Amino acid sequence: MVPTVLNASPSEAAQTQRLWSSTLQSISRAKQSLEANDANAQRNLTYVFGSKEEAYRREVLKRISLMDNKARRCRYTVSLFEGSVPGFEGRMSIAAHTAILGAPAISLNKIQLKGGFLAEGVIAHELSHNAAGTDDFAYGRNVHLDMAKRVRNADNYSLLIQHY
Ligand SMILES: [Zn+2]
User: What is the pTM of this model?
Assistant: First the structure.
């Protein structure tokens, strides 16, 4: 479903909706691939999660399906913002944020709209928090985390989606 975009010019709203739609298409492709357990699924599970074992494929597919279902069923609100977030000044320029398993709403930094590939990963990262209850144990490719955390780590889902 097309999201409502807040605090955006018409072109920023259109760009956000394109990114959203492209992310959802990647999530759908990932879901189909993991359901079929095809060659892409085996390669991407091995690269991003460090294992293509059946138990892990099911854990990852479960969360991808939650993301896919919620993004199709609910109309999300994407609120754009500029600059830093109160409480984060001096530490980082936060890219995006959302509530874990909360209302269908994501806040996205306008600098991400120029990120292309990166922005798609950011939306997938936030959707995994919002729809599938993932956490932030580590960022990037984290095959060193123990597997119970790896299958609940948001950035692993971001990376997986970027491979579809
Ligand atoms: Zn996060």
Answer: 0.92
